[in-house]
Amino acid sequence: MLGMNPITLFELLGQPDFQRGLIVGGMGLVAVLVARKLGWLMIWGIGAFAALSWVGLLRTSPQTPGWALPVTVVIALAGTWAFRVLLSRARSWAVGLSFGLWVLGVWGTVPDTERAAVPMGVLAAMLPALWPGLKVRVGWHGAAIAIAALGFVIGTDGAARTSAMIGSFGMVGMAMVAALSARTVRKGQFLSSWWLVASQALHVIISGRVAGQTWDSGGALTIVILSSILTGAGLAWGVRGTHAPVSNS
User: Fold this and answer.
1) Is residue 249 part of a domain?
2) What is the reported pTM?
């Protein structure tokens, strides 16, 4: 993945845009612990847009291709269904952590991280709310706005390299693949939490590698699709348990 190493992560901490995102995320952390009905995903999405507006980066890029917006809309709408399925078949903290991996993956994949650093700050502050003991509601209702925020970052910061956009959208699109895998489990079973997180991490790594290659759009898309199929199949094998999970959807 582009730029994904301890040094760049340490440098990220010192960036003003990340720090402002961290401030907004801190407010989001308080909000999600107080107003639990809104859900973690919705508050993260609102926080990401609010932080981007605060730093003056809530603006489009002239390089953004025309297909970025419709792809974001489709993934956001389909993602709502996907999160609804996942939150009924997996632990809510594992679903939230998987989303966090996509945010990290997008930041490490897009060639220009000016905007990507902002939602990373929001994420860093809000991650503690996913601790299982807090029983915070992740909430599938907020999936569309959260994915829309990621789509905006992908379409702007990733505009300089088509393969980066395909790889990044492929990470977010994994929500649908994971949901389809979850639908294969029998009633009373659920996805292994760590298997879910591990499968998402693997897909993020593979999709991130796509961004650093010089393949054309077709080649990059083929790799992302193959990765989705393989990790989705592996996820379907990770079924554990005999009782439905307690999931604050």
Assistant:
1) no
2) 0.87
